[in-house]
C-alpha cells in the first residue's frame, strides 16, 4: 500500500487513456451527446449470452477496462432486464436458451431495443445450424441493430453503439 | 486411478463405451437392442455427468445409477430424441411439453432454496445454480448447465479435420489456442508428421500468452468480487495489454486461426521488452495485493476444496493444483527444459487459487522468454490417415482431452472433454460453511468455462 502511495505522490494522477487515438475520443464525445439527448444521460444495457464462445462477453468486459472506460459515457451494463433499455445479444440462439432469452426480452420495459453482437446471432460464425440452434436471432426478436465481428473488438463495439444511437 | 473421460461411440449393431483413465483405456461393447451399462460413479463421482450425457446423447441406460435425470436434455427438449445416434439427422427440433427438472435440494426446518440463472447478473455466460440455504449459510448447491449446448460433437461429424478447425477454435474463446493445439497434435498424428521444435516453441509461446491473459483477467475479477475494485482496474489494464500483444503476434485478439503449420516472423525484441515490462508490473501487483489484509480476510479459508476431494472427484487445472494435487500436462521434458515449474498450494481455498494464478503468470513469462526465437519454419502435413486419435493440452483452465476418430478421411466421432467439465462437478464441495455472498468469489476463483462444458 505504501508503495502505491509513494508512486502516486511521485507521479501524480495518470490517466490510462494515453494510448487512445483521436478517433476514439471523437466517437466517445458523440456517444455522450447522443446518450444525453436520447436517453436522458444514461443508457442501460442488459447483456444476454444465448450460446457464445465467451469471446464476445470478454470484449464487452474489456469495455470497462481503463482504456475504454465506457461507463464514463453514461453507458451501463445492468443486472436485470427490468432496468434495461437495450438487450445486447451474443452467441448462437441455442434451443436450450431460446425460451430464457425471450423471457428476458419480455421483462424489459418499453421502449426497448435489441442489438445483436458478433457473427453468432446472425449465423455468420463458422457454426452450422443444428437441431440445438434456433437461428438466427432475428427470427425470434425484433433486432434494431447489428454489430459484426468475431468477436467485434472493443472499439468496434463502441462504434456500433454510436451507429445504433444515431439510427434511433 | 484418475478418470479422464467416459463416452460412447456408435458402431454397427453396437455402442462402444470408452472409458479413459490416466494409465489405460477400457472399451466395452454393448448391444443396441439392450444398451445397458453399469455406473462408474460409485468409485468416480465425476463419471455421473459423462453417464447422464451418454443417456441423453445415445439412449444408453445406466442400470444402477443413483442419478438418472437428463443432463443435456432440458425441460422442453424432446426426451425420446437421442441426437448423437447416427440415424438422427434432423437439423431442427420443436419444443416439447415442459417437464420440470427436479433439483437436488436439502429439506428441513428453516431450509430454503435460492435459484440463480440461467441469465446471471453480470456479463457472464449462462448457467443455473440452485442453493439450499439456512439463513446466510449455504448447505448445498447444484450446478446445472448445457444452456449453451450447440451440438458441436454432432456438427463436426462428416467434416474433414481442416473444415472442423474454425469451429474447434471457437468452442471456448478463452481456450482457443489450447483447443487448436490439441487439434494440431491430432493432425500431426493422423498425417504421421513430427512437429518441428520451432513450431512447438511458437505454439507453446501462444498457449502461455493465452494463459496469462486469462489469469490476469481473473486476478482482477477475484478481488473485485471481494469488493476491491482497484485490483480489477489494474489487472484489466494488464490483460488488455496482453491481448493487444496477442493480436500483434497472431492478427487476432483471441488468437483465432493462430495455430497452423507455418511461422510468421516476429518482432522478437519488442516482445522481450513487453515481457520485461509485464514482469515488473506483476511484481508490483503482487507486492501491493499481498499487503491488503481485508482482502485476504475474504480469501483465506473461503471455498475450501480438500485435497482428498480434489483427488476423489478427478479435478484438474488450477483447482486441483490449489488443493495440493500436482497435476499439469506441462510436466514433461519439453516444458521443463524451458523453465516450467509446477505451482501448487495446499489450502484449497480462494486464496490458494488466487496465488496459484499469480505464480503461474510469473512462470509463464519466464517460459515465454525461452520460447521466443527468430523462426519462419513451414511444414506440409501430408495425407490424413484414418484412425482413432487422442490429444491433450493444458489450457488456462486445466487438462483438455480431445479424441477424434477419422473414417474415410472425415470425422466419424468428435469428442472433447473440457477441463471445466470435471471441475464444475466439484464446485458444490466448496460451498458448505460459506455464506451465499461468497459464492461469486468462490465461483470466480475457479473461473470455469460454460461454453467448453456445454459444447
Ligand atoms: S461471434 Fe465469434 S467471438 Fe462472438 S461468440 Fe460467436 S464465435 Fe465467439
UniProtKB/TrEMBL annotation, chain A:
It holds the Pfam family Oxidored_q6. GO terms for molecular function: 4 iron, 4 sulfur cluster binding; metal ion binding. Residues 53-163 form the NADH:ubiquinone oxidoreductase-like 20kDa subunit domain. It comes from the Bacteria. Its cofactor is [4Fe-4S] cluster. The keyword 4Fe-4S applies. Belongs to the complex I 20 kDa subunit family. This is Hydrogenase.
From TrEMBL, chain B:
SUPFAM superfamilies: HydB/Nqo4-like, Nqo5-like. Pfam families: Complex1_30kDa, Complex1_49kDa. Keywords: NAD, Oxidoreductase. It comes from the Bacteria. Transmembrane segments: none annotated. The keyword Oxidoreductase applies. Residues 11-90 form the NADH:ubiquinone oxidoreductase 30kDa subunit domain. Residues 268-374 form the NADH-quinone oxidoreductase subunit D domain. One of its GO terms (molecular function) is oxidoreductase activity, acting on NAD(P)H. InterPro entries: ComplexI_49kDa-like, NADH_Q_OxRdtase_suD, NADH_quin_OxRdtase_su_C/D-like, NADH_UbQ_OxRdtase_30kDa_su, NiFe-Hase_large. This is Hydrogenase. It comes from Sulfurovum lithotrophicum.
